[in-house]
Amino acid sequence: MRKEGAGMATGKLASWTLSEEFLDEERLFAVPGVCERARERGSAIGLPPVLAGSAAHARSVVALLGARAIVQVGAGAGALSLYLASAMGSDATLTAIDSEPENVRLVREACTEAKIPEARVRTINAQPLEVFTRLTRGAYDMIVVNASEPKLDALVEGALNILRSGGALVVMNVMHHDRLGDPAANDPQTTRIREVVTGLNEREDLVVSMSPAGDGVLTAVKARL
Q1: Whole-angstrom distance, CA of residue 185 vs CA of residue 179
Q2: Which member of 10, 62, 142, 193 has the greatest number of CB atoms within 10 A?
Q3: For residues 36 and 46, what is the distance between their CA atoms, to the nearest angstrom?
Q4: pTM for the predicted model, two decimal places
Q5: What is the domain-level CATH number for residue 34?
Q6: CB of 159 within 8 A of CB of 169?
Q7: What is the CB neighbour count within 10 angstroms for residue 161?
């Protein structure tokens, strides 16, 4: 006889798998396989892939907001940039910031292959916090940050400063390889992510939700006060 806990675990895995496979990313762009090739190029230099379920979640936030000005911190190999760009209107711009020049090159390569106009995806090779100081406060619709960023707390504060009222901060990979919800996981990076998540959840000026899609996505909407 199967134990109830085992059945629940199997059901959760099936649900997670369905959410990962739900969106057919092949129809997002005219060029077949462009997202998968972006992931492969990233894997070749040791970048962890952005899973489809979490990328689809972030993409839906772009559409929901009608986001015209988006900032992505930690651009990776470009797969997430492609997802975000696929939901943008013709007058929207994605600014992808990464401190690693190779990552910036991969984003440009992915966008070129996907035939996204160069003017719609701006890449910046710099330290994100330095760039934030030059961006207009309250002018951006959506900021996307990866939870693995070493200065996550400062990046989140900086992101909220440049985010408009009603805009959204999206933190990718927030479950941190399923360690966030594990009380025994007390390594420095997990602890730092946990503190940032707790701080966001306690703020009265944010409407916060968390999804287990991919490796977890936290969405914090800046409330209209």
Answers
A1: 6
A2: 142
A3: 15
A4: 0.91
A5: 3.40.50.150
A6: yes
A7: 14
The total domain count for the chain is 1
Strand 93-98 relative to strand 217-222, pairing: unpaired
Dump the DSSP string for 27-96. Answer: GSSSSTTHHHHHHHHHHHTTPPPPPHHHHHHHHHHHHHHT-SEEEEES-TTSHHHHHHHHT--TT-EEEE
For 119-170, write each residue's pLDDT tens digit: 999 999 999 999 999 999 999 999 999 999 989 999 999 999 999 999 999 9
Q: Dihedral through CA 118, CA 121, CA 124, CA 130, nearest 10? A: 150
Interval 28-86: pLDDT, tens: 888 999 999 999 999 999 988 888 999 999 999 999 999 999 999 988 899 999 999 99
